[in-house]
Every structure is written in structure tokens, then in C-alpha cells.
Amino acid sequence: MTTLTVNGRSVTIQNDVDLSTPLLWVLRDHLGLVGAKYGCGIAQCGACTLHLNGTPIRSCSVPLAAVAGQSVTTIEGLAAKDGKLHPLQQAWVEHDVPQCGYCQAGQIMSAAALLKQNPKPNDAEIDNAMSGNLCRCGTYLRIRAAIHTAADRMNGQGNGGSKSGKSGGAV
Amino acid sequence: MSALITRNASVARGKDDAHIHALMNHVLGEVPAMSRRSFLSLAGLGGSGLIIAFCMDDAASASETKAATNLFAPNAYLNIAPDGVITIYSKGPEIGQGIKTAYALIVAEELDANWNDVRVEQAPIDQALYGWQGAGGSTSIPNNWDTLRQAGAVARSMLIAAAAVKWKVDAASCFAKDSKVHCRDGRNLSYGALANDAASQTVPDAKTLKLKERKDYSLFGKRYTGVDNVKVVTGQPLFGIDTTLPGMLYAVYQKCPAFGGVAKSANLDDIRTLPGVKDAFIIEGNGQATEVLSGVAIVANSTWAAFKAKQQLQVEWDEANASKDSWQSFMQRATEIAKQPGQETINDVGNVDDVFKRTTDSAKIVDAYYYYPFVSHATLEPQNCAAWYHDGVMEIWAPSQNATQAVQQVSKLLDIAPANVRVHQTRVGGGFGRRLMNDYVCEVATIAKRTSAPVKLTWTREDDMTHDFYRVGGFHSLRGAVDEQGKLAAWQNHFISFTADGKKPISGGDMPAGEFPALLLSNYRLMQTLMPSGTPCGPLRAPRSNSIAFVIQSFIHELAVAAKRDHVEFLLGIMGEPRWLKPGDIRALNTGRAANVIRLAAEKSEWNKPLPKGRGRGIAFHFSHAGHVAVVAEVSVSSNKQLTVHNVLVAADVGPIINLSGAEAQAQGAVTDGLSMMFAQQITLSNGRVQQTNFDQYELLRMPHAPPVKVHFIQSEYNPTGLGEPALPPLIPAVCNAIFNATGERIRTLPLTKLGFKWA
């Protein structure tokens, strides 16, 4: 048996689940949390990004054995307890970021980790923090703009909006 | 800039939204109110099960709701409940092109609905009700424009008729606005209040109804956020790969790495003993790459158990009839072939030989050899599908962009009556043409027919990249001439492409006789030679155009340079007088619309404004999939070939814009997609095998290299056409022309990494 905390709740994984199983598949197949996505299996695309003890990880490449007793936050646990969306989720909707949407949970989790560490990132810092997350549809401009909006709002600066040329072109 | 329109929280009373709320509460540790669907989330922490929940509940809840509320449901596209909620059904698959939002807007516009009252659901797959349900060729909007508007207009007309009866006035004295019918005397009634009465009105003949005029549109042209965006950003199960069914098993399928190889034997006994593995067996298949190729299926109790077992799988393949394709040999053969005239002449207008002979100034003749590689779709959601064979019914949850055909294919393949093949459309994690094919659907249906339980097939990324229907590579040997006046005088192209059947060009590898600029020139010759290939190929976003635009629109620039003329002027010269080459046919070039987008792109990019040394601006136009699009890119290249794309501007005419946010998104996405394809993407073949297996070897553009993109639309008077594809083709030539203008290096080969370029 392996015990870990997922979105604030303690969960127990039975012994019949192989300890080599990547956290991604534990969540998706055994815990019914499918927000984190499978894209590459080798930590190249970022679709499976979630937080382990607050740090962003590629859950496709971290086995169950390595997360015993630790705390996992997934996209399903990002909103507030009352269901109010996280400012990033809200900004994502306002900027109409998703196209197919498949990468977006991973993008948001990477962005959430960035804002925790750096509440006012500039374009270059955003690009750097987000460079591990692929978007096949090409929504990068809007992701950048949405991160600025959320950061501004979290810093109490109202509506936010893009504050640099490179974010231009998004909604 | 108008504000983005998001719908009020009050619309969250839709059944799925309420469910999501319950799920979220569950995740967060609160006990949700026990609902009829909550049993489905008991296994987890508020995750999967949603799709099957809908499926199992739909019939029951629909009849319950109907009995309880008398929905006004005049056709298959919408219904209105007495509480005022308007449900619109989107007939097509959402693959990232924003169709679920756009379709609903078209119905809502003609219905005169308040967008806040609208919720949108995926329509069932039902050919009798909806015709073809798929997405391809940027046809979703143009092919459904009239039907959807009529669906909304029928409902509006019946609501007005119901109000007129109630008020005892002439219907002509009533009008609809904002989910209400208004009488000229000032009275009004909401659609919800009229729903019951409207339901008993006679359904009018849609063709007799007057549709709204452009000036009366109130919804179109603003920015709307996608109708499922809240679900996307909260990680709800929407995609095919998220499907969970009671007692579901998990499958993988191993095909021969060389296309068309047949599984002779495998270590099945060993595989069956591995942890979690339930079964392993060889599937003969029907030899069709679009359906089921020979391979080995492993069925397990989790995806990981199946993936892990697959790593232990040893298969003996019979490769006697398998592909032996090699990209190196293709390149060598093509260079030889290019020295000869083409095997076939596709089009021959005027006399190009005569023009070349008469052109004595060699500087006015340009010879060029262009080529581009095979590329993969690489949808971020790998191919997958779930199926459950029960009670003689094959029930399928498919992230397909061609579900109607999936029904037909599975029915024929497994000898199940079409009525007993039920396909549920899921959201699709990227289409790009890959999912016009239903191979993963046919595979899982074949597996499900043997298992007694529901089963989900998931391809690994490696399966996905090595078993695609690739955008075919191609080679072009070109000769062009400009005359003394600096006009394009003659154009000859020997196109070296591929054939799968030894007769016709492979899918995506054909070049129509009338391809631009054929129809605008007096001397034009297109020849073709086909090389046999065993690699499955198929349409990829803007098929044909996504590759040949690079060649054509770069070569036009070469000729403009030879003519010592400005590229924009030269392009406008080719367009000539404004005319629609086949009036009424949206797939025919309209030179007036072309010239307008070229002029707009030039104006907005300040085309004539000088740039600092080392920077270059490039332009390209292309007409594809009924869209007229011009792109301007500005680049700089360092001495060690580090490329920076500073900005990109897109000018497009696809008629009136339905959802401005969605339309801009398609153009922005096409730019990113084009940059990916241009810069690093190449699938190479060796002994019939694809050599790239994952994103470390097949790179997509990453955020640091995504330039700002400005999008400008000319909302012309023509009917709207699609935008999923046409913004892509001009991107690559625009950037490559900019590289020439910045450095003098002409790009005739893709991807750029093969020429030593790096991102700055």
C-alpha cells in the first residue's frame, strides 16, 4: 500500500498497483483524475504537469514509489474550495486560450508554479518557465497574456492585460 | 477592441455544469449532494466517468425532461425549455477549431437569442438527422451556414407566431430580440414563456423564411470564449482518452515498424503472464492502414500494465510485402528525375518553351529546385478510442474528426448492422487531418469484439509518431521567366511526388492543374512524375497547400527579384484585374479579394518602411480552402544562422467573422504551426520505418520562439468560409522570403535546421 495526499485528501493505493507506475497513470487510471494528460511519456511535452509538494513535475516520468507520503496537487485541485476558479483559470477563460485544450491543464499548472515563485514575471521569465510545455495548436501568445493578467490580478492590479509587446496579438 | 464575451455564471445550471460543481466539491473533500450520476465518481476523487454518465443518462433524462417540461424542439439543432435555457446541439467534432462555439453562434444569431441563455451540447452521431458529421477541408462553416441559420430562423418564426396568437395580433407586428418576442405596442414575452405554445405551432418550410441581413447581426463579429473552456481549465473529462467505462480494460496495439508487415508469431504466452495482463493476441487485420493492419493486441487492467507489457513484446514480422521506403533514396532518385521532363503533363498553357527560348537575358530566367520532407500530425492527444461490445451493439467513444465514416467502417469490418454501431463523439485533442482516419476506432472495435468488457485502446507517443498518415514530401524542379516589362512571362514546374497504387498521386501529393498561378498566366506548364511509396499518407492542415505554397510563393519572390521589382507590386501584377475565376464557386480564386489582402498586409506591416540592416521583411499570399490570406513576417538572422522571427502579420478575407476570438486564434495557431513545420519538423524513412519516435526527435515550436502575431480581417460581403486551414500555407514562404531579404540566402529546402539554422 502506498499513501499520498492528492488535492488535500489522503489516498491509499493498493498493492496491486505496480510501484513503477508513473504518477500520471495512478491518477488517471486508479484515482479517476484525468486532468493531467498523457502526451509523450518522456517529460518532453508537459501535458502531464502537476505539483509535487508545490513544485511542478512531469508526472509521466515520476513513479508511484517516489511519491509515497508526499503531497500532489492536480488541475482538479487548483480552484478554491468554494469552486471559485484560480486567477489563472479565470484568465485562461477570459483570454479564450484553449483551442483543442489538451495541453492546457499542464500549461496552467506550470504557470501556477511560476507565479508562486515569481509573482510578477516578465515575458522572458514566462517563456523560460513555460518552455517545457508544448501546445500543438499554438496558443502561446494567449498563454503569455493570460499569465500577465492573472499575475496582475493576484498582485491587486485590477484588470491587468499584457504589459509588453511580445504578448500582443492575443485577445 | 471589444471585450471578450464570457457567459454568466447563471448559465451554469446546465446539467453537466452542475455535475462539475459536484465533482469539484468532491475533489475538495466536501460531500456532494447525492445525484444520479455521483456513483460514477465514487471510485475516484472527482474525475472520470462523465462521458459514460452522459451516455447512460441521456435517453432517460431527455425523456424525463420532455415529459416534465414540454421542451420546444423544432429541429435537431436546438430546443428551448420553459425556464428559458436554450440548448443548441453542435453537429460537428470540436478538434480545436472552435466549431462548437461558432455553430452555436450561427443558430443563436438567427434565433435572436441572448448568448447568456445558450448552452451547447455535442449532437449525437446520426447521419439521418445531421448528414456527415466530421471536420475537414475548412468546410464546417460554409457547408452548414444555411442549415444552421435556417434552424434558428424556424424556431424564431414559431416563437413569433406563438406570441402573435397569444396577443391576437398579426405576426408581422412582432419581432424577436434578445431571447424575447416583442410587439410593436411594447409588450414582450420571453422565449421560455413562449416555449410551450411555440411547440404547438406548425413548423414552417425553412426555405420560405427570410434570414437576417448583415446589418442586423447582433452576435457575429465579437469575441466569445469557447463554450467548454471552463471544463478545459478545470481538467474535466472531455477527451477520448479520458473515457472511463465500468469494468473497463486497457489495450495497446503493436503494428509492424515497417508499414504493412504482418505479425507471424509473438511471445504471447510470456506476455499473458505479466502483471495485470488479461490477454494478448494477434490480429490479422484487413490490410488497410485506414482500418486495421496486422499486429498484436495486449489487454490489461491498466494503461501502464499494457504499456509495460508492450515493452516485453517480441514479434516475428513477415516483411515480404512491407514498405522499404527510404528518404535518402527518394532524395537521390528525385534529383535524377528532375533532370528529365515529367512523365505526365498535368497542364500546358501557351508555349513556355518558346518564352524560355526568346528570353535571351539569362538573368530573367530562374531555375530552382525545391523540396520538403514528410511531416507528422503529432496531435498532442495520441490516437485512442474506447469501445464496448454488448447486447449485439458496438458502442464507441471516439476522438475522431470523421465519426460518420467510423460507423460505416466498423459496421462493414465487423459485420454489425450500422444501427448497432453507436459512436459517441468526444472532444478531440487536436485533429489537423489525422483523425479523418479511423484506424484507432477500427482497432479498438476489433479488440472489443473479443473482450467481454469495455476496453480503451491508447497508442503510445511512439505508436502515434510511427503510424501516422504523413504529410507527404515532395520535390519541384522549376523554371520561370520574366519579360522586359518585369512581368511574369512563363512558369514551368516538374513536380516529383509519390504514388501508393502506382497510378494516381498519393493522398496530399497531388497538384491540381489549376493551382495558383496557373489560371493567371499565358504560359504555364505543370508536369508530374510519381515515385512509388509504401508509407501511409493523408491530409494535414491545408493539404497540398501547406507544402506547395512554400515552393510557389517563394519562387514568385525569386522571379520578382529577377524582374527587379517590389514583391508586393509583382504579386498584384500577377493578380491583374479583380475577377472571380469561377463566379459563385467559393473554392475558386477571386483576384480582387487576393489583391485586397495583399494590400492590407502591406499597409499594416508598413511594407515600404526601411528596416535596420540585418532585418528583413517577407510577404507571401496563398489561396487555399476558400480563404484568401497574405502574411508578412519580419526576421533577423545572426552570422551563425540564429533566426529571430520578430513579428508576423496575417491579413485574411474569409467573409464575415462569426467569433472574432476564435478566428484570430486560428490565424495565430496557423502561424505557430507553420513555424514548427518550417523550422525543425522532418519525418525520415529507412527500410520502411519512420525514424522519429517522440518529441525529442520531432520538435514542436516552444513558447520562447513564438512571435507576436497581428491578425486583420477583411469582412467582405461573401458568405463566410473556414479558417482552420488557409492561414497556414503563406506563413512558411513569408518567413523564408524574409530570410532572403535579410541575408540573401534563398531557402529552397525544409526544415531550416537541415540548413544549419538555430533559434536565436
What does this structure look like?
The complex is a heterodimer of chains A (about 170) and B (about 750). Chain A is of the alpha+beta class. Chain A has five helices and five strands; from the N terminus they run E-E-H-E-E-E-H-H-H-H. In chain A, about 30% of the residues lie in helices and about 10% in strands. About 10% of the residues of chain B have low confidence. A seven-stranded mixed beta sheet of chain B has the order 12-13-10-20-17-18-19, sandwiched between helices. Chain B has 19 helices and 30 strands. The radius of gyration of chain B is 28 Å and the shape is globular. In chain B, helix 12 packs across helix 13. The relative contact order of chain B is 0.10. Chain B is α+β, with helices and mostly antiparallel strands. In chain B, about 30% of the residues lie in helices and about 20% in strands. The chains are: A alpha+beta (about 170), B alpha+beta (about 750). At the A-B interface, helix 1, helix 2, helix 3, helix 4 and helix 5 of A face helix 1, strand 9, helix 7, helix 9 and helix 18 of B.
Uncertain spans of chain A? 160-171
Total strands of chain B: 30
| Helix-and-strand structural type of chain B | alpha+beta
Overall morphology of chain A: globular
What is the typical, i.e. mean, pLDDT of chain B?
Answer: 92
The secondary-structure element order of chain A is EEHEEEHHHH
Helix count of chain B?
19
Span between termini of chain B:
32 Å
Number of DSSP helical runs of chain A = 5
Parts with pLDDT < 50 across at least 5 consecutive residues of chain B? 7-68
Major beta-sheet overview of chain A: 5 strands, mixed
Rg over alpha carbons of chain A: 16 Å
Strand order of the largest sheet of chain A: 2-1-5-3-4
Assign the structural class of chain A, choosing from mainly alpha, mainly beta, alpha/beta, alpha+beta, or little secondary structure: alpha+beta
